[in-house]
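#struct-pred

JT: dropping the chains for the assembly here, can someone run the whole complex?
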Amino acid sequence: MNLTLKIWRQKDSNAKGQMVDYKVNDISEHMSFLEMMDVLNEQLINSGEEPVAFDHDCREGICGMCSMYINGEAHGPDRGVTTCQLHMRMFKDGDTITIEPFRAKAFPVIKDLVVDRTAFERIQQAGGYISVNTSGNTQDANAIPISKHAADEAMDAATCIGCGACVATCKNSSAMLFVGAKVSQYALLPQGQIEAADRVRNMVAQMDAEGFGNCTNTGACEVECPKGISLDNIARMNRELMKANLK
Amino acid sequence: MSGFFKSSIGRKVAMALSAFFLMFFLIIHLAVNITSLFSVELFNQLSHFMGTNPLVQLALQPVLIFGVVFHFVMGFILEIKNRKAIGISYAKNNGAANSTWISRNMIYSGLVILAFLVLHFIDFWFPEMKLKYIEGDMTGVIAGTQEFRYFEELQHKFLSPIRVGAYVLAFIFLALHLLHGFTSAFQSMGSTAGRKKALQTFGKIYAYAIPLGFIIIAVWHHFNHL
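RK: done, full complex below.
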């Protein structure tokens, strides 16, 4: 198929970016979206132009690095997939595809489609962990009884890959689905209880300090999340914060 | 606890608490007003009680005014903060693919409701305050008669088709606001109940029934006075 691509080009974080049009021809419907981007970049390199910078790593939907806003949706029009898992069969010959970086004040553009998502790292560092004594007498986690339901819910929350699609798709650039998932995966397990109050307080404080917006419960993040993280995690985070502040 | 209400989640909880209070008030308001459709006497008596009872006037009324003002002010604060968090807008954004129009535009339905409230206060609340607390007339009767003035005033207000039209339009926007706001308030309070079918259905019934009740009252008095 032959396509027209409208891509955000921005030389560096200080430069003023703009949308630039490109044509790519003979794209197979079996290609992944990133393979199509590779074809474009080969074309650009061969013609002496600067290739389009974009984030990617595992290319199998695990690492959370790819981060494109395609035709007005985070990770494109398919559901439950990251950009690297998006296939060109979702498009048709002659289509114009708009490709932009994930937008949020807290996700500044570094170059072209690459954004700085270290705000998520700082939120994690603020409390997204449990403290374990590793001096040689660590208790086997399997020795702690956990209900199947809680284990499943914690696992579902833990599948968040921190790609930032929730922020990108939210009309308020809110990070609450991400933070809700990270708070929940520990709040649901006994190992997470000891530091639960500090965790939620510190992670929410860091989230606010990073300049993310407020959740208005549109539910867009849940729909666009490649891992199907539920809005219930935001409700749980809200409960956890209320509980922490009542202590 | 004061730090809690300065956090993004705390502000949403405060917004939800005021929303619950206002949604409860709407039920009371409609329950009183709907009596005007079938009993002039009952409507007059209830209006006089609400308008002169010290508990209602001096305790509940200030709380209500605070609740209304708080909900609007906090709504604007959140909107401003959210707009600041966005940065550069997308060249192409397909919001309809993942969320409802009304959930993304609560500020606009809220602004229409705010404009309506200004009209509603000018129509009913300010004249009431002036008559009762500036002119000191707490009798609630039409001058020179023994008749209560409340029903008469209500019907007089709905003579104008333009005013009735404005009220109907505002109530349609109230319905839209409630369609998202009802379940959203539960989510902000940390409850997943708003995500359950039963409460979503109840929320829809509430969101349609309350505004529809007010629309019927306005239209009824317009046509029954002609």
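JT: nice. Residues 30 and 214 of chain B are 7 Å apart (CA to CA). Residues 54-86 of chain B form the longest helix (33 residues).
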